[in-house]
Amino acid sequence: SSDLDACMYAAVTQAMLMKTQSSCTVPWVPDDRSVCTAEKDMNISFWTHYKKITNQQDDCPKPCENLAVTVGGRNREPLPNNQSQVYFYFQPITTIYQESFLYTALSLFAEIGGYLGLMLGVAIFHTADLINMLLDSRITKYQQQIKESQS
Hints:
Number of strands: 2
Radius of gyration: 37 Å
Shape: elongated
Distance between the termini: 99 Å
Number of helices: 3
């Protein structure tokens, strides 16, 4: 995950440096040497960071494993005996991607063979039907000729 973090911070920082007039960043990125002071640049850098930090534009390769944890505090009454509370918020949805072959080689050849057999069967059936139709028309014509010659 540190590779993803480093890549994301580099991509976000580069985008902020390019989009702002004074080539500046928000103060919470690791490379905060040039923090924005002008209001317009602050706004641009904030929204650039906000839109790009989740890798929605695929700036960085997706990791094989990733765990997103948000740590924050709440407005609560102080706890007795100098105790503290830490809340961990986990993503409500976990997406798991699994890649697999759609067909194995055997399944692919079986599928192709099945379709070829089906088409060949249809072709033979239609050929037999065509021959039957031609023979029927010849027989009908021959029968008509015989009736005409007898009349």
